[in-house]
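User: I'm putting together a small comparison set for a docking exercise, and I want a reference complex before I start. The sequence is below, and the ligand is adenosine-5'-diphosphate. Could you produce the 3D structure with the ligand included, as structure tokens?
Assistant: Of course. I'll restate your input first, then give the structure tokens for the complex.
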Amino acid sequence: MAVRIVVLLAFLMVGTVAGWSLGGTTGGVVGAWAAALLWLAVELVLGARVLRWLRGADVLGDPPALTGLWGEMVDRVRRLLRARDQQVTEARQRMQYFLEAIQASPNGVTLLDEINRITWCNQTAASHFGFDAQRDQLQLVGNLVRDPDFTAYLAEGDFSREVVINGRSASAGRVARVSAQVHPHGEGQKLLLSRDVTALEQADTMRRDFVANVSHEIRTPLTVLNGFVETLQNLPLAEEERSRYLGLMSQQAQRMQALVNDLLTLSRLEGSPLPGGGDWVPLAGLMAQCEEEVRGLASALGKEITLRCEPAPAVEISGVSSEVLSAMSNLASNAVRYTPSGGAVDFGWRERGDGRLAFVVQDTGPGIAPEHLPRLTERFYRVDRSRSRETGGTGLGLAIVKHVVQRHGGELQIESRLGQGSNFSFWLPAGRFRPVAAASAEVPVLEAAETPQS
Ligand code: ADP
């Protein structure tokens, strides 16, 4: 500042001296005024340059080359602007980072203002409610989500609970359920969180159906058993009749036991880790056990069926041998149970040409109508309830087979035509087999096999 006063005084002095030398005292006064005006004009020009730079678009670009007071001012303004610009960029980056994180969330996030207009939503929320993240900004959420339960929820204002509504992707053949909950924040703003609960609801329904099915399956033989017990307690029966009743009671008890065994097998399959590839067992051994079980079943059922058991290929199989045997026995014993006397059942392992081997069971039984085929592996699904029960079926056999086969990396296939017999088979991947010759000196030991229950 002092420099500027000195410069101004110097200007005035030069002007005064020059004026005085030209026109005496009056000339000196005029000279001083002229010098002051000149100084002012220079300052105005410099100020105008600074102002033009500040007004321009490129404030952070090259500043006007100025020195002194104006130069320092320009420099300070530029540094302040730079710092502010840096802050804005950092704030934007942080914002972007948060938005990206919220976009990546598996839950839907919608921001609502005080009057429930959408100010922002992530992609998940958009798909839950059918919003268009860009187009629907500032639209009233109640206009876009027309579910009556949601409308009532918003109107009620009790946001301590969540509301479950049909998701946008729900249609006649597709269930989609979305749970939504509002969390108020700030001054009247709201955070609407949503999540897809379709799988949860389905699992819940399945669990309830399963419990109802199991209870029903157990209640039926229990009721019969109770009836016989009461009869035995209250009626003086002849020895022959007594032993007939006891035989029938034993049948019901066996039925319950078969059911419990199958349930335990299923829960073990669901809870145990996937079978590795360590234990090698010759297929021939499994086939021999399967054949023995199936022949035993046929004679227990008093059926005259032609059973053809194909010789097993000279290979070993890796996996849980008791599970594989249970899958084989389930398919083969189903064929025996459902094929009437006079029919034929062929079963055995066949090579598929690409290293995979398939266990195939063909029967000349009643066959299955096409509408039942996709549901056969559901728990407790039966085409003919009474026939399944008559032959000691639990309705869980094919569910067990499907589980076992999937756990071993294979697939269950069912082909059947009503009145033309059935073909049940499952293949396992090539990696689960090796020729017997390649086996090491280890002695193959069969794991204790489970008796098929259906
Ligand atoms: P179940 O214990 O009732 O046999 P499964 O799960 O083993 O239960 O089979 C489901 C249903 O599939 C059976 O109830 C039966 O209706 C049908 N089914 C299975 N195998 C055959 C077959 N070989 N021939 C005809 N129907 C079959």
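Residues 49 and 212 are 87 Å apart (CA to CA). Residues 2-55 form the longest helix (54 residues).
User: Thanks, that's exactly what I needed.
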